[in-house]
Amino acid sequence: MLRSSFVRSRSTLARAYSTKTLKIGLIPGDGIGREVIPAGKAVLEALPKEDGLSFEFVNLLAGFEHFKQTGTALPDETVEVLKKECDGALFGAVSSPTTKVAGYSSPIVALRKKLGLYANVRPVKSVDGAPGRPVDLVIVRENTEDLYIKQERQYTAEDGTQVAEAIKRITETASQRIGKMAFDIALSRQALRDAGAPSIHKTSTVTITHKSNVLSLSDGLFRETIRKFYDANKDKYGSVNVNEQIVDSMVYRLFREPEVFDVVVGPNLYGDILSDGAAALVGSLGVVPSANVGDEFVIGEPCHGSAPDIEGKGISNPIATIRSTALMLEFLGFPNPAARIYKAVDANLAEGKILTPDLGGSSSTQDVINDIIKRL
Asked: 1-117+294-376 — its CATH code?
């Protein structure tokens, strides 16, 4: 039985490759990104030959360290190689300076815009038998607008004090396509349940997260657009339940009763905060994957940052990257090898003997990689 939740039947990503050789761009970025991206490569290379896949890899540059060396955070060559040569990519991590650095902007944000990666899909799932409340949800985050358009200004007010302003942009177009993505994922997850896949949910539900009680125009447009799309397409999505949650109460319920959530869709900022917070429900940011997805390309990206405090110590958790690698394969239309990877990771976590320190273990990054590859 396929354990894929994300393959979209009409997407150009889920196409049949004639050669079954996939070229994957590797973008380590900063910090521990350089330590965990090799884990994704190693797992792809270790997939059993019966899956019928082979891989070529190309190493690409981006990140804050590259900016400090060259003055460019995202080289044009990296974008061109991804567009013209690669089927998908893995992105490690990027350092984000907390103060303004002239000329610098996040390369992953730029990649999302340049490659049309309008959705950030972040599944958060507890391992069967793990202590605590069960978690099995997917956060679908709009990836291209909101406050992340980075249109800010600072000026001096009449009283001589400084004022900073940022534009929050919500469009009908972006809201509708992210809503559609959420509903499609809900249908895929329900199809798996109907086929007998284990789940804590019996029916599919999409929860729209917003703050339209305060931001009545911007967040109001987001929620109204998604609801309008649902109402206009009930012939396809009528089996999906739809509700909504104000973002502050969403945070409260996420930690009090995470088992009630199935698919959560939100604007860029709320999706970012909720998905990082949800990682605490399953132990660590080091185990939570994500995929930046558009109609023509996908980049797998672990949810953790560059973690400079543990860089170079050999203890960074590679599981988020390995799961992101599987998620990339799902969106590329290869659920069987993706399922192998998920099963191997789940077995490692369920046994609980070979874990990195963020999960209470004492194993190294390479120990975990070796154990997961052995389980493949």
From this structure: 3.40.718.10
